[in-house]
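Re: beginner question about structure tokens

> Can someone show what the tokenized structure looks like for a real chain? I only ever see the sequence side.

Sure, here's an example I had lying around. Input first:
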Amino acid sequence: MTHCDSTAHYQGKASFEITGVAFQTSIGTKMDAPRHRFEGAEDIAELALDRMILDAVVIDARHASPEQELGWVDLNIPQLLAGKAILVNFSWDRYWGTEVYRQHPFLALEVLSGLLQAGIALFGVDCSNADSTRDPERPAHTWFLKAGILIVENLKVLA
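And the corresponding structure tokens:
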């Protein structure tokens, strides 16, 4: 809104230049709460801080190639994962800003199901999406968020 346009809002006593900015919120490192997938579900603002401060297990998946689906045989996933943050290190952050970044690897359905059954509390990846973008069901987002498991995407420098 220009100064001229805003004058009428202030009965001619003041004017302001007001610029609106719109952008997608899914940029940079981000956390998804259940509401991201399910209308009316728990929102980020409702989350207790202790749900985000967790012991973590980093899964080494640096050997993954673009758009590769990784199954149990491709990963060394320890047992006793209940209540932990599971972070998958594809080392995909190295491709940030390139077209390859959008061709990220992902975990197979049986691995996602196993993590869900193990009772994890948070699932994180160092790529743009926890799911294959070719799968319209978005199982990680659907299954994990329905169970109250938070998702973090676009992580950087996982060790």
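Each token stands for a local structural state, so reading them left to right follows the chain. The chain has three helices and seven strands.
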